[in-house]
Amino acid sequence: MVTMETLVSLCKRRGFIYPGSDIYGGLANSWDYGPLGAQLKQNIKAAWWKAVVESRQDMVGLDGAILMNPRVWEASGHVATFNDPLVEDAVSHKRFRADHLIEAWIAKKDPESTLVVDAMSTEEMAAFIAEKGIKSPDGNALTAPKQFNLMFETSTGVTEKGKNSVYLRPETAQAIFVNFKNVLTTSRKRLPFGIAQIGKAFRNEITPGNFIFRTLEFEQMEIEYFVEAEEWEQHFEAWNKWMEEWAAVIGLKTDHLHRLEVVGDALAHYSKRTVDFEFDFPFGKKELWGLAYRTDFDLTNHAKASGEKLEYTDPADNSRKVVPHVIEPSLGVDRTLLALLVSAYEEEEVAEGDTRVVMRFTPQMAPVQVAILPLMKKGGLPEKAEEVLASLAGIARCDFDVTGSIGKRYRRQDEIGTPLCVTIDYDSLEDNAVTVRHRDSMEQERVAIADIASYVVKKLV
Ligand code: ATP
């Protein structure tokens, strides 16, 4: 499997992802998506939105605000319980997740252990750390674990006196629950139906890291799917299946994907059943996405706290009012992108002692779909290539590259995952045809310029 070092360096070199605030020496654990990364991210979000909103009659979209009334987070339980167990190195005061240190200790010292660390209380963790003598990664003693709330607090209002505390949302889901009534009234959907949303979320993670895997600011694609209480299992299973299928559609290596049934106290405060979709990242098997049965927890609590009725009236029997139950497929955009990079990366020996790096993105995900490459910078070739480029406008995402040897240009396109390269040579001026080179097979074929648009459309499906 590709190492993180290789991936991070490729991402920077080719313009997928840069360290955040780079010219100021960066800001720990912040990353900026460059031209190719921004496009890849866009492709992931567009594919998801198309699949879950545009192609379905039982789903609608929403784009809620990041800042919400703080009462939302009290009602949702986040103020009280959205915590991680924090321990500090008693000497350096560096902070660590107690659960992560215990997991690392078990993996090293007692790999056969069946202990579910996520299910341990703060007191149990404290006792375990003391009993086993677990130290900080720097070898020092640890303080007792305490619960640390992950929500970022900020304030609105221009004068000190009039300032109000607000939170940056730690998940996008709550905007969906808060708008349940608005959406129901305006969209006139019937159960079962879902609301989908893409947006930024913020968590003051104790130990961010592993590149874009765990950051303080990230994007989520979330669905709240509202169902009759007694039908939750069948809808849970349907989304469970859908998530695996969608992983394959976008090009994730499905043999890297594993389901983990979350049990007991490890379940989030709102959930009756959760399946984590884990992925084999270069740093281990870690959560990629989550699927949770949230019961009627959120709607009931928001109804109580706001005084609004958040109910659904059965169209077949107006006297029957129900609070729908909820299935929540929750996907992180950034983790999906990282898993796609890991899935796509391949080093291939093309000749004795000669290897190429190729990103095997699907044509839909590839940031660049067609590279237009005039063989020479002169002799009318760039002008002819411009004609080809114009014929593909609105059909494919193209990159026009005139610099360097053709071999190097092919390798560069392989490394960014471009499925097709179109080369314009001197013969093109005579026969009005171009050479198309395929990323995966490296085979080449001659195609008439007049046919190139329809050819590309066929190849990119
Ligand atoms: P973890 O156990 O890794 O902290 P979580 O169970 O807290 O994740 P959820 O609350 O289920 O995560 O959030 C849904 C999805 O949002 C996750 O599956 C993941 O894809 C993404 N996500 C959560 N936290 C982060 C983060 N700090 N950075 C990037 N993506 C994240």
What does the model show?
33% of the residues lie in helices and 28% in strands. By secondary structure, the protein is α+β, with helices and mostly antiparallel strands. It has 3 domains: 4-80 and 151-342, BirA Bifunctional Protein, domain 2, CATH 3.30.930.10; 85-149, Herpes Virus-1 (2-Layer Sandwich), CATH 3.30.40.230; 368-459, Anticodon-binding domain (Rossmann fold, 3-Layer(aba) Sandwich). The strands form 7 sheets. It has a 7-stranded mixed beta sheet, sandwiched between helices. Strand 22 (433-438) and strand 23 (444-448) form a beta hairpin. It is globular and about 75 Å long. The model has no long low-confidence stretch (mean pLDDT 95). The chain binds adenosine-5'-triphosphate. Adenosine-5'-triphosphate (ATP) binds at residues 171, 203, 205, 214-215, 218, 220, 287-290, 330-332, 334-335.
What would the keywords be for this entry?
15 helices, Rossmann fold, 3 domains, alpha+beta, 461 residues, 23 strands
Write the layout of secondary structure elements.
Blueprint (H helix, E strand, L loop, with lengths): L3 H11 L2 E3 L11 E3 L1 H20 L4 E4 L8 H5 L2 H4 L1 E6 L6 E3 H12 L12 H11 L13 E4 L2 E5 L7 E5 L4 H6 L1 H8 L5 E10 L14 E11 L4 H19 L6 E6 L10 E9 L2 E12 L1 H10 L5 E2 L7 E2 L2 E8 H12 E7 L2 E6 L10 E5 L6 H11 L6 E3 L5 H11 L3 E5 L1 H6 L1 E6 L5 E5 L3 H8 L2
Parallel strand pairs: 3-9, 19-20, 19-21
Antiparallel strand pairs: 1-2, 4-5, 4-6, 7-8, 9-10, 10-16, 11-12, 12-13, 13-16, 14-15, 17-18, 21-22, 22-23
Bound molecules: adenosine-5'-triphosphate.
Adenosine-5'-triphosphate binds next to strand 10, strand 13, strand 16 and helix 11.
